[in-house]
UniProtKB/TrEMBL annotation:
The lineage of its organism: Eukaryota, Viridiplantae, Streptophyta, Embryophyta, Tracheophyta. It comes from Apostasia shenzhenica. InterPro entries: DNA/RNA_pol_sf, Endo/exonu/phosph_ase_sf, Endo/exonuclease/phosphatase, RNase_H-like_dom_plant, RNaseH-like_sf, RNaseH_domain, RNaseH_sf, RT_dom. PANTHER family: OS12G0587133 PROTEIN (PTHR33116:SF78), REVERSE TRANSCRIPTASE ZINC-BINDING DOMAIN-CONTAINING PROTEIN-RELATED-RELATED (PTHR33116). Residues 688-766 form the Reverse transcriptase zinc-binding domain. Coiled coil: none annotated. This is Ribonuclease H protein.
Length: 1047
């Protein structure tokens, strides 16, 4: 506590807190500061460790002999003297012992810790404090009670509140006391709040019943359900649309349970639901909802600081889905365009863009009468609507009485119980959740990083957190709000420092330029987004709306304001920031959009991209007419459903006519649609567009091959660093004048560089020798460059090879042992390390195929598929169809398919030349050709009962899976139509399945696809096959001993 006492003696303590207390004290200076630490000797023993004019630090020994460290702080108001405190305590941290430091730190971290006076801004003082916490593994333990601990006690207009007092704890303290609570007590005789630390035991909530999806794998579970539930075969579409494995409500049953055991439980469920609709009443227990609270801000202590997530009973979800499915088609006519929610395709981003444009108008307007905007918002609007008002509005909107009754039975009189630390509160009636806005972006990222720390995380762990959490944090803001480059630089600085294990101001070694790190993994980087490039792709969805003629609220306003410049994405000085940002992504839109033709009335022959992403006005050598004549629409080239060949011959050459005739159009009843060429979908392929911004380098040079190896992420990242010469060997450090020696620490008397740590190190060679007694290893190379080539080649063809995995894990764990030796830590000797490497590696499954799914017949509504790592033959009576597509360029593609039986014998191999720029479309056409051929064999040969479709394209398999669901069919796009045709042919077989095959094990199909880009061909069983094709067949399935006829 701060005493403001320049003399602290025994009499002072006795008068303050009693005679049974021992103490340590630091006197104040000029009535400022001063600290007393007092304790009861009968309860614990205290051994002072450090006394400084700003802190008393002591070791506490309890009667149970457990120990922990406690510090009492009164930090100086001067930031430079306060820095002395950080520097004094930092050498004692991080500590393996529990560590608590509390008191008046006289520093703020973010705006939430201040009210009144000048707004808070991040400065040297706050950054020094955050660095002290991060480097010392100290975490703010939060609080309950008042938000601020200090007040200047001035008149209300000049009053300032701040949170200057807090308690920090390290990871060991949090592990020891997970239920620790810091309470801000009321201010009485001081301008500061007292802090009370409560060491509450960690509560383990009583278990509750919850159906686990893992139980679905046990056949016994089905018999248990059958024994306790009546059978029925009635299918309810609402049940099939339930999400699987979502958090259940109070009933404890997930959607997975209802879908898996529907044949058993449907009779009871359907009877109950129909009765509820007939009577217009729901049992109260169906509407009982448990609410879990998710903090929206750090140190949340008020109800408004939490986001409530309602967990409804599954039976209630089924009823709600039935109503939603019926109501959904009517919503566009019921909800005005100004409302950005509830309607697919609308986005709150549209309202944000229009608002920014209006604000820009206020700044630039010279209107004499002035302009003003009114922003109206109703806080917690849904909470404040009366049930009577809702019922009357439904009546005004002409909802039938029965419908109104159904809606009201669902929304009225629910009961809620709040889940707090696993315990349910008492029932609360007629309460509903509310939402809040984002807090400051930089503070949010800093707080995230600080809550994780760096010392307990590996580089692989930090990379995962950056890609999954930190990089996604600014996405919402970047996609529709102008963010200054200085803020982006600050965010990237935080990410850089966190990645390499430091913080904003410490000089942690950054081993590679950030531009090399911020590349997709397939291009040699770590997959972290470059925020400037990423923003460009995120904004492309808004730019596309100007051309796609989307029904969004801001489009007409922008076209009216910017006129011709709107569709050309031209910006100039004085334009609003949001328009300039949209223009940044204009090139992305122009280079990647293409029209799908239905009627052709919306598409200009000359100016719009409809044959490729390049408009015809830039194809002068293919056109037989003057450009001035080409001002009509594509509709003029059509006779409703067919092309007007005479008109085409008047305008275009033979090659271009053939290209146009190959275009598969949308059904004539639909409208022309502007889509992204890469996917032929109106949804923006953000990730693909971002990847296209980077040059695709050689896999060996970039280290992209490392990510294909089937080893744990830590090993992948280490080998990636080796491929980029970013490993701090002593030679690497010596070259940068960081180390005085460049010799191996194992006493090899050789320079420690990449050649040495990968091949010649005695420690590594001895470990290799012990491994080789149990498993064969890759032959040694003479240099790291040669070894790098060997590893990359092996990864390309056999990424799960045990020799490859052993070699990569050997490199990583030998390096870890070397680092442990250098830093004076424990490490394993070569025999022990060899055993660890073998256990580390061979515990990873080589074949991940769950065989129990492969031979079962899937539901007609949902095709399931597994993931394969090598080519496997089907069972007897099955045909396996492998396929691939290849884009040659300039709109030319090839599709290949390969049909084999249970012996691996080739029944048919073929390829077709086609015209498309979409790899997904090429993959679908390959599947279509393969399935048609397999169907033909089925009619010729008796005993063929099953078909197994296998591809290296998960996107194509997903599309067929979706198309197989007859409830979801909507073939507006050509690829949807092809996928539905494939699914229909699969259903012609008695048994069918699909699987994903690693690209490197699909070499034979890839060969066929590349060959087909030149001309069509078909090979059938008994024909001589090309020698190189037979070699690929054997390479795809090295364990299958089959002889092929070769030329």
């Amino acid at each position: 506590m701060e005493t403001k006492m320049d003399l602290v003696d025994r009499n002072s303590i006795d008068s303050l807190i009693g005679k049974s207390w021992s103490f340590e004290a630091i006197p104040s200076i000029d009535r400022a500061g001063g600290i007393i630490m007092a304790w009861d000797d009968s309860k614990l023993a205290v051994q002072p460790i450090l006394k400084h004019n700003q802190i008393i630090l002591a070791e506490i020994i309890l009667s149970s002999n457990s120990k922990f460290n406690v510090g009492g702080v009164y930090a100086d108001t001067d930031p430079y003297r306060r820095r002395e405190l950080w520097n004094t305590v930092s050498p004692l941290l991080p500590s393996p012992s529990p560590f608590l430091i509390g008191g008046d730190f006289n520093v703020l971290i973010d705006q939430s810790e201040k009210k009144g006076g000048k707004p808070f801004s991040t400065n040297m003082e706050s950054e020094d404090f955050l660095d002290f916490m991060l480097s010392g593994d100290l975490h703010d333990l939060g609080f309950t009670g008042p938000a601020f601990t200090w007040c200047n006690n001035k008149d209300y207009g000049k009053r300032i509140w701040e949170r200057l007092d807090r308690v920090l704890g390290n990871s060991s303290a949090l592990d020891l006391w997970p239920g620790i609570t810091i309470k801000h007590l009321p201010r009485i005789a001081s301008d500061h709040c007292p802090l009370l630390v409560v060491f509450e035991p960690h509560h383990i909530p009583a278990s509750s019943i919850r159906f686990e999806d893992a139980w679905l794998s046990f056949e016994e579970a089905h018999s248990i359900v059958q024994a306790t539930w009546h059978r029925s075969e009635e299918i309810q579409s609402a049940v099939s649309s339930l999400a699987s494995n979502r958090a259940p409500g109070i009933d404890g049953l997930t959607g997975s349970f209802f879908k898996r055991y529907w044949s058993t439980i449907s009779s009871d469920v359907v009877t109950a639901i129909l009765y509820a609709f007939e009577k217009g009443q729901l049992p109260q227990s169906w509407k009982d909802t448990s609410v879990t609270l998710v903090p929206k801000i750090p140190h949340a202590f008020e109800a408004k600081h939490f986001r409530p997530i309602s967990l409804c009973n599954t039976i209630y979800k089924i009823i709600a889905k039935i109503l939603v499915h019926r109501l959904k088609p009517l919503l566009p006519s019921l909800i005005s365009i100004e409302q950005g929610a509830f309607i697919p395709g609308r986005s709150i981003s549209d309202n944000c863009i229009l608002a920014q444009e209006l604000i820009h108008k206020l700044h630039t307007s010279e209107a004499s009468n002035g302009l003003f905007l009114i922003k109206a918002d109703m806080e917690q609007a849904f909470d404040r609507i009366s049930w009577l008002f809702l019922d009357r509005m439904l009546n005004i909107m002409a909802f039938p009485p029965t419908w109104r009754k159904w809606i009201m039975m669902c929304v009225t009189n629910p009961r809620y119980t709040i889940l707090i630390n696993g315990r349910r509160s008492a029932w609360i009636t007629e309460r509903r959740p509310s939402k809040d806005d984002f807090t400051d972006l930089l503070a949010k990222i800093r707080n995230r990083i600080h809550s994780w720390g760096t010392r307990q995380l590996s580089l692989a762990g930090r990379l995962t957190l950056i890609n999954s959490v930190l990089s996604s944090t600014p996405v919402y803001i970047l996609s529709h709000i102008f963010v200054p480059c200085s803020v982006l630089d600050c965010i990237e600085k935080l990410l850089r420092s966190f990645l390499w294990g430091g913080n904003e101001d410490t000089n942690t070694m950054h081993y590679l330029p950030w531009k090399d790190v911020c590349k997709p993994k397939s291009c040699g980087g770590l997959g972290i987004h470059d925020l400037r490039l990423w923003r460009k792709q995120l904004l492309a969805k808004h730019a596309a709306k100007l051309l796609q003629k989307d029904d969004c609220i801001w489009r007409d306003s922008f076209i009216a304001k910017y006129k011709d410049r709107a569709l050309n994405f031209s910006a100039k000085k004085g334009d609003s920031w949001i328009w300039r940002l949209i223009c940044l992504s204009g090139s992305v839109v122009h280079n990647n959009l293409i029209w799908l033709i239905a009627t052709g009335v919306s598409v200009s022959i000359w100016k719009d991209p409809w044959i490729s992403t390049i408009p015809l006005c830039k194809w002068p050598t293919y056109i037989n007419s003057n450009p001035g004549d080409l001002v009509s629409t594509v509709a003029d080239l059509l006779n409703e459903n067919t092309w007007n060949l005479t008109r085409l011959q008047q305008l275009f050459g033979v090659d271009l006519i053939n290209r146009i005739l190959s275009i598969r159009r949308l059904a004539y009843v639909h409208s022309d649609t502007l889509v992204w060429a890469k996917t032929e979908s109106s949804s923006i392929p953000t990730a693909a567009l971002y990847k296209a911004e980077f040059h695709q380098p050689n896999s060996l040079e970039s280290g992209a091959w490392c990510w294909r190896a089937k080893v744990i992420p830590r090993v992948q990242i280490f080998v990636w660093r080796m491929a980029h010469n970013a490993v701090p060997t002593f030679q690497w450090l010596f070259n940068r004048k960081i180390s005085n020696s460049n010799l191996c620490p194992w006493g090899c008397r050789q320079v420690e560089d990449l050649n040495h740590i990968s091949i010649y190190c005695n420690f590594l060679q001895e470990t290799r020798l012990h491994i080789s007694k149990h498993f064969p290893l890759i032959p040694q190379d003479y240099s790291w460059e040669n070894k790098l080539t060997s590893l990359a080649n092996l990864t390309s063809f056999h990424r799960d090879d045990i020799k490859l995995r052993l070699e990569l894990t050997l490199l990583y764990l030998c390096w870890r042992a070397r680092c442990a030796k250098v830093h004076g830590k424990l490490y394993s000797n070569p025999p022990t390390l060899a055993i660890s490497i073998i256990n580390y590696t061979t515990s990873q499954p080589v074949n991940l195929r769950p065989s129990r799914f492969l031979w079962s017949q899937p539901s007609p509504l949902r095709l399931t598929y597994t993931f394969e790592d090598s080519w496997l033959p089907p069972k007897s009576g099955w045909l396996k169809v492998n396929l691939d597509g290849s884009i040659k360029g300039h709109g030319v593609a090839g599709v290949g398919y390969l049909i084999r039986d249970s012996y691996g014998q080739v029944w048919e191999a073929g390829g077709r030349r086609t015209l498309t720029d979409s790899i997904l479309k090429a993959e679908l056409l390959a599947a279509w050709e393969g399935v048609k051929a397999a169907t033909s064999w089925r009619s010729k040969v008796k005993g063929v009962k099953g078909i197994w479709l296998e591809s290296d394209s998960t996107e194509m398999l997903d599309l067929i899976t979706y198309a197989s669901n007859t409830e979801k069919r909507n073939a507006k796009a050509e690829m949807d139509f092809i996928a539905q045709q494939i699914a229909d042919h699969l259903f012609d077989f008695s048994l069918y399945t699909m699987s994903h095959l690693c690209r490197n094990a699909n070499g034979a199909s890839d060969f066929l696809a590349h060959l087909a880009s030149s001309s069509d061909f078909t090979w059938v069983g008994g024909m001589s096959l090309p020698n190189n094709f037979c070699h690929l067949l054997l390479q795809d399935a090295p364990n299958l001993h089959t002889f092929y006829t070769v030329n």
